[in-house]
Design brief:
Radius of gyration of chain A: 27 Å
Shape of chain A: elongated
Largest interface: A-B, 20 and 33 residues
Distance between the termini of chain A: 73 Å
CATH topology of the largest domain in chain B: DNA Polymerase III, Chain A, domain 2
CATH superfamily of the largest domain in chain A: Reverse transcriptase/Diguanylate cyclase domain
Low-confidence stretches of chain A: none
CATH class of the largest domain in chain A: Alpha Beta
CATH architecture of the largest domain in chain A: 2-Layer Sandwich
CATH superfamily of the largest domain in chain B: DNA Polymerase III, subunit A, domain 2
Helix content of chain A: 25-40%
Largest sheet of chain B: 13 strands, antiparallel
Number of helices of chain B: 6
Main location (chain B): cytoplasm
Oligomer: heterodimer
Number of helices of chain A: 15
Strand content of chain B: 35-45%
Distance between the termini of chain B: 66 Å
Number of domains of chain B: 3
Keywords (chain B): Cytoplasm, DNA replication, DNA-binding, DNA-directed DNA polymerase, Nucleotidyltransferase, Transferase
CATH topology of the largest domain in chain A: Alpha-Beta Plaits
Subcellular location (chain B): Cytoplasm
Structural class of chain B: alpha+beta
Radius of gyration of chain B: 25 Å
InterPro entries (chain B): DNA_clamp_sf, DNA_polIII_beta, DNA_polIII_beta_C, DNA_polIII_beta_cen, DNA_polIII_beta_N
CATH architecture of the largest domain in chain B: Roll
Pfam family, one (chain B): DNA_pol3_beta_2
Number of strands of chain A: 14
Strand content of chain A: 15-25%
Shape of chain B: elongated
Chain lengths: 417, 372
């Protein structure tokens, strides 16, 4: 079975402790050399940075947080023994662990350290997808020839390097997709390294609670539990179509995850997925004419941002919040991508009319999604809408005027409603 | 219910039922087919709430009755059974299962109560007429390609069937458009169809109806109301809701004054379009037509991938013209022509172009040019 010593990085550590450095931190797994999707997560990141910079805090329980909202943002592992957790209100944390040292966060420092770590990751692969300051996915597929070592060696070397150079410990999860890599990194924290291979995926997932699945929060867990589904094994008793029928697209999603299938790719930079703008009113509005004015202004803002970023979107979304806080969300797909106010508004208006009876509303939002690079030309001429080119030209011309003389230089009468 | 039926007859009925049933839906009963046996017939009814198809076929009914089972699963089972076998369906109300026996195979399927199955309410039809299958087939088949998939203009997601006045008299007309191209197909108005209300037949219905129209000489009973359309053969009844919306006034879109006439062999033309568009980029598949006395040059210029041109002999006697089109639209239109040459009538490079087969005005196509 392939193995590697995480301390001396030898690939022939032998059975038991490493035969070269006597370290117990030997990783053994049948698929050790074949897996390439990794999730790296810093251990109690903010607290670790504080302890590194203030060595006298090293053996004391430490909480980073406080400030306006008065919650724990990170706590060190000593504080965790007492039951302190992130996002816990500070007074409760101090009840559990009165001897804890509380320091306010230094975000600029953490973000500096995060950048150093990211730079080290990017030396290994261009496919680094940061999730937050302290965690990232890495796709090391196809890098073996370049680095002359399999992904697992690169990752062990990187974890050791981060520890040596930055004095921050990190936990690594290695698997064959993102969902499992993320679970793995959490299995053996802190300073961990866990592997979930293809062969063991199904067995590993079987007895786990459904809440472990990515995207299954308290609400979904509740629905599943009412139907007697608690573990992933329970989920697997259903066919994909049955789950789809019961829970919609979320059902199909959890079915795939329950079978260890996750086809999401690791994207170096998450592209902008949607542009949206919303407005909460001082008083609830139920009148179409008044809403229409807001709809136009919101469409205009979305359009301005799309134009500035040179993007065009082919789905228009409408968001409404009723006076009793119910969220209504509707969308419509366009034949071709657009960035024009006129077209965004024209698509959103019928959606609003259809939902009007649910009003009055406290919030109205307009969004544009399924974005792509703007091709430089607007939609092809339309037999049924011969005036469209003139309206588009008018909008482009008024954009040019607004660019030069300010965004209020020229407005449609509709915008003043 | 206890019935014996020949496998091929069962397969035919189940294929029809299965294609109407939405594979993925959130209402369990809609995945089922309603099977009813009475007298010497067995009928299979499937619906997606917009379309309902009932297929009646002869069977040995030992015991009348009815039940519903998963359409997709029954279809798959029958499909895999050996050809020529006799299938026995036996629904037992006590167990809530339907047993299927064929040769040495045995299946037991879960059922749902027939009372839960939504049967489409029968309604009054304003117009009833009978038409030959070949005639209806031509109407739908030739217009189908132009149906829009756009969600914003949902009223374009079907074929507008209505009666219209043409130079040759009253016609039964099918029109479809997505704003970029339009198909307008005429056929003689069948007896009794003169008062037909204009209805928009949804895309899925068009697909299902075309499957009914395989036998050219068959007579199809068509019934139309403001909200529904029904097609019936002796064995099959397909009822569909029509799209609730008004179809735009398409007549002003059909150019009347286009003078520049080009005649070209449709097959050669389609092949040439297909050939040169190979180098165009996926997004803007524009083909430029440069037409000069009896000569047509098709060209594509895609800055990032390459360029191509191809010359064709055509009949054209007007002034020189350059005009661009989406390659896909040109191909689809050219492939509608099956007997004579394609005749294109142009006005200018910015105006809609008309295409028809020879001088036959009973099928005309309009396509919007694009800038090249």
């Amino acid at each position: 079975m392939p193995a590697i010593c995480r301390d001396c990085l030898s690939d022939t550590p032998g059975p038991g402790r490493c035969r070269h450095c006597a370290s117990p931190r030997v990783l053994r797994h049948d698929e050790l050399l074949d897996l390439s999707v990794a999730h790296m997560d810093c251990d109690a990141f903010y607290a670790s940075v504080e302890k590194r910079d203030h060595p006298h805090l090293a053996d004391q329980p430490l909480i980073v947080g406080g400030g306006k909202r008065g919650v724990v943002s990170t706590c060190c592992y000593i504080a965790r023994i007492k039951g302190v957790r992130s996002a816990m209100p500070m007074f409760k944390a101090l009840e559990l662990c009165p001897e804890a040292v509380v320091v306010p966060g230094r975000m600029d420092v953490y973000s500096g350290v995060s950048k150093q770590i990211r730079a080290m990751m990017e030396e290994l692969t261009p496919s680094v997808q940061p999730i937050s300051l302290d965690e990232a996915f890495l796709d090391l597929g196809g890098t073996q020839r370049l680095h002359g070592a399999p992904p697992v060696v690169l990752l062990a070397r990187l974890a050791k390097r981060i520890e040596d150079e930055l004095r921050i410990t990190i936990s690594v999860g290695l698997s064959h997709n993102k969902f499992l890599a993320k679970i793995a990194s959490d299995m053996d924290k802190p300073r961990g390294f866990s592997v979930i291979g293809k062969a063991e995926t199904m067995d590993f997932l079987r007895d786990q609670p459904v809440g472990m699945l990515w995207g299954v929060g308290a609400a979904m867990r509740g629905r599943l539990e009412r139907d007697g589904i608690r573990t992933i094994a329970d989920l697997r008793r259903y066919a994909e179509d049955d789950l789809f029928r019961k829970y919609g697209s979320m059902g199909a999603h959890v079915w795939r995850l329950a079978h260890g299938i996750d086809v999401r790719r690791i994207q170096a930079r998450d592209p902008v997925k949607s542009i949206s703008n919303e407005r909460t009113f001082n008083e609830d509005i139920g009148d179409l004419d008044t809403l229409d004015g807001h709809l136009w202004r919101l469409s205009l803002k979305v359009s301005d941002r799309a134009k500035a970023a040179s993007l065009a979107g082919s789905t228009v979304n409408l968001k409404l919040k009723t006076c009793d806080f119910k969220l209504v969300s509707r969308q419509v797909r366009l034949a071709e991508g657009t960035q024009l106010t006129d077209e965004i508004y024209a698509a959103a208006r019928p959606l609003l009319e259809r939902e009007l009876s649910k009003g009055p509303f406290r919030l109205l939002g307009v969004g544009l999604s399924h974005l792509a690079e703007y091709s430089g030309s607007d939609a092809a001429p339309d037999l049924l809408d011969p005036d469209a080119p003139r309206r588009r030209a008018a909008e482009r011309a008024s954009d040019a005027i607004r660019d030069r003389f300010g965004s209020d230089a020229i407005l449609k009468g509709r915008a003043l409603r | 219910m206890k019935v014996s039926i020949e496998r091929s007859a069962l397969l035919k009925a189940m294929s029809r039922a299965q294609s109407v049933v939405e594979r993925r839906n959130t209402i369990p009963i809609l995945a089922n087919v309603l099977i009813e046996a009475e007298g010497a017939d067995i009928s299979f009814r499937a619906t997606d709430l917009d379309i309902e198809v009932v297929d009646k076929t002869a069977a040995m009914v030992e015991q009348a009755g009815s039940t519903t089972v998963a359409a997709g699963m029954l279809h798959d089972i029958v499909r895999k059974l050996p050809d020529g076998s006799t299938v026995q369906l036996n629904a037992d109300a006590a167990t809530g299962r339907m047993e299927i026996r064929a040769g040495r195979s045995h299946f037991s399927l879960a059922t749902l109560p027939r009372e839960d199955f939504p049967v489409m309410a029968s309604s009054e039809y304003d117009t009833n007429f009978t038409a030959k299958a070949s005639l209806l087939h031509r109407l739908f088949d030739k217009a189908k390609f132009a149906i829009s998939t756009e969600e914003t203009r949902y009223y374009l997601n079907g074929i507008y069937l209505h009666s219209a006045t043409a130079p040759g008299g009253q016609m039964l007309r099918a029109v479809a458009t997505d704003g970029h191209r339009l198909a307008c197909i005429d056929t003689e108005l069948p007896d009794g169809a003169d008062a037909i209300p204009g209805v928009i037949v949804p895309r899925k219905t068009v697909t299902e109806v075309l499957k009914l129209l395989t036998d050219d000489d068959a007579q199809i009973d068509v019934s139309v109301s403001e909200t529904k359309i029904r097609f019936a053969t002796p064995d099959i009844i397909l009822t569909s809701k029509v799209i609730d919306g008004s179809f735009p006034d398409y007549t002003r879109v059909i150019p009347q004054q286009n003078q520049k006439r080009m005649e070209v062999d449709a097959k050669e033309f389609a092949a040439a379009v297909n050939l040169v568009s190979t180098v165009s980029s996926e997004r803007s598949r524009a083909v430029k037509l440069s037409i000069d006395e009896d000569r047509l040059i098709l060209s594509v210029n895609a800055p990032d991938s390459g360029a191509a041109d191809h010359e064709l002999a055509v009949a054209y006697a007007d002034e020189k013209l350059e005009i661009g089109f989406n390659a896909k639209y040109l191909l689809e239109i050219a492939s509608q022509v099956d007997r004579e040459n394609a005749v294109f009538l142009f006005n200018s490079s910015g105006d809609p172009t008309l295409m028809r087969e020879g001088n036959d005005d009973s099928a005309i196509y309009v396509v919007m040019p694009m800038r090249v």
